Records
---
Amino acid sequence: MVNRKELNPDSSPRAAFGARIRRFREDRGWSQEALAGHLSYSSQHISAVETGRKPPTLPFARELDRAFGAVDSADSFEREWRDIRHGSLLEGFPEYVGHEGRAAEIRLFEIGIIPGLLQTPAYASALAGGDVHRGTITADQAAERVAVLAERQATLVRRRPPTLLVVMDESCIRRPVGGPEVMGEQLERLVAFAALPNTVLQIAPYDIGERRPFNLPLYILTLSDRTVMAYAESQIQGHLDRQSAFVLPALADYHQLQAESLSQAESVAMINEVRKGIP
């Protein structure tokens, strides 16, 4: 088929939605033009949603259900749209996690919260519980989020674990989460993490000011074949990038961040000072 774009449904919930439209459509022998005849949307719009260039909307999902005879079914497009809209994982993150579990080196930078790979179960549950309290996710989605985190952490426990380089903004260790007991246990975990032979833990102190190159979380992976990719996220969206035009400057900035941050010994000393101040 001319100009047929291959889809990767594992890359994001939006991509999975688009791939499913294509599967349903082709199972019926319909072209995008034929499907458009059953909808109030153009074939160009259908193409954009199938390939992930446009996000699906609720009205579009409902029209798909009517066209495909899936209204109120367990696998309706409306149900899938609601899972995307209120899902527990950011777009782009599932694909990143797949690569993370195979990475030879992992570089992390985080602001405000302890990086997920270093979180205790109680700390992770407290964060997810806060989102439930605000109504941004359901209790089931919170449980899924914590379970995914546990699976990510488990992939790092292997015969040849990856080198894990972590820089945390000072706010990560000073922001109390879950109460004194949870926070105390979490800081103890950080100290134990720093003692591992395959890890480096550094704190980027407040006083580096404008010399901190990143204002959002950043994850950089080096795979066993030396391929490097970067994942960055905002409050509502994540993006995995393999293009050297972005990844290589980000890696250079990360090295500069490490140079500006406290040494591991100084970072552990700061963490221990914060631990002493917990009531």
---
Amino acid sequence: MSARKLAMVAFRGLQLAFIGLVIAHICFGWGYPVWWDFLPLVLAYVLVTVANRWGGAPDSSRRAPEPVEVAPPVTGRWSALNSPADRTPSHGVHAHGQTYAIDILAEPEPGARPGFHWLWPIARRPQDFPAFEAPILAVADATVVRAVDGQRDHLSRNSLAGLLYLMLIEGSVREMAGLRRILGNHLILDLGNGTYAAYAAYAHLRRGSLTVREGDRVHAGQVIARCGNSGNSSEPHLHFQLMDGPDPDAARGVPFTWHGVGVPRNGETFEVPSTAAALG
């Protein structure tokens, strides 16, 4: 087990130990001060803080010398959020191989996507967002090494109450539950060409929409799933990243660029014609 993987397993174990200590303290009335129960939680967050900022660059013997060029994973008009074109790590942490990850949201026309609301509505159905059910495409000829399905597409978290719930409660619970609950329904493709290791991860896919299974070969531009709102997601969108290994808990991020698009910046809208995605 790699050091990065071990750190994430220990982090989740310490969180569970904290919960167990609090419950035991209440049930058995142990005599020591209650603040001692918080020691595993403090250790957990010290550990994950170190792990989250632990060298984002992939191993020099395995990484591509420059960003890996692949086809776009979608067609149509989209906008970027948490882009590595603006900063790295793009999501604030190196954990889960997401140093160069990007989130993209469907914007078929200005105003088509419901925006953030402070008070009401607290949540929306995923069907209210144009990204929901949008086809997701293979970015290269590749082999499917992980295909996880079965998690529900939940309501959006794009209000103040919803966002606080996601950040303070839901996100922590999903972190303790493991990577699958964070990524939701997801796919990982092995793009390696024998020279370097590159794995493409697609997260927050719609339940029941995966068209491939582990071991399948796919071709650039092939529909492999549909966009959803599963896992640690505020609204239907695609989270995409390249990594140097198949396990996001142990992998390091790999930079990418999309044919004809590059890497869009935060808030930038880009359009991919249906023919462009098949040119990988």
---
Amino acid sequence: MGGTELSPEFELERLSPDEAFAILGNDTRLDILRSLWEAGAHHEYDDIEATATTISFSELQQAVGIRDNGQFNYHLSQLIPSFVRHTDEGYRLSGAGKEVFRTLIAISGEQNSSVPDDLESPCPVCGGTLTAVYEDQWLRVMCTDCDGNFGDATPDGTVFNTPFPAAGLTDRTPDEAFLTGNYRCMLDMTYLMRKICRECASPLTSSVSICEDHDATRDRSCTICVTDFPVWGDLRCDTCRYAKRLPVELCAMGLTPVITFLHEQDIDVLSSSFRELGEVIAVQFQTAVTSDPLRVTVTINNEPDELTVTFDDKLSVVESTC
């Protein structure tokens, strides 16, 4: 029987961020990646497979527009093997090269933009008017009538804040962008609660932060932390610095038992609107904190059924009962 492609002799190619930036920091090399992308010279799918489309050295050189063979060959060789693969059939993008160009496509477009129209969706906190702002590749939905959800961690009035590629705003209304952003955020939770970075797949570190004297009511946020939630989950990737800070109740919604429990009530965690998720949390979720050792218990009620999930101080599940 033949060996797999990931054989015992397989070694990961280590490339530091500094080395990657140095390689890609050249217009000619970016033109090479673009030309390979436009020619479809890569695997059709991201899965590793036996065949892929390639183009020859002369075809690639002509596409890039560099006449000097030595100069072109030098820049091409700098991209091999990390971003370009050279096979007997020709040249193609590697998986990393394909990902780099996808990233360039995703971030292309307006970097900072005020969305001029108010959202039709009401504020989930006070029912007021929402407006959307796009800034630095982040979509921020803000209430014009209240302080929002996040206290001092974000600008006043923020009720939703998520990274959002500029390409994703194309042909979407502010409400559609809000719904899409919420869907992406809930999908992220399934990664994060398994301590996997959704950007680079590295392990995450996580912890909980607690407002000890939380005094929020149904009518107003806490006067101390200026949020509606006493316990927050903090998740961070030390490799690429991706980070999220979310109420522990939303963190719980990334767990399979909670997704299943709510699904049995015809509540789809992934496709529900932000307001619907807020209503579910307000009506069915109860959070309690105990110490020595620190435990955060989230209880979801649906009489006569009840699901309880208990977290430790590292936001790891230590118990789940139904």
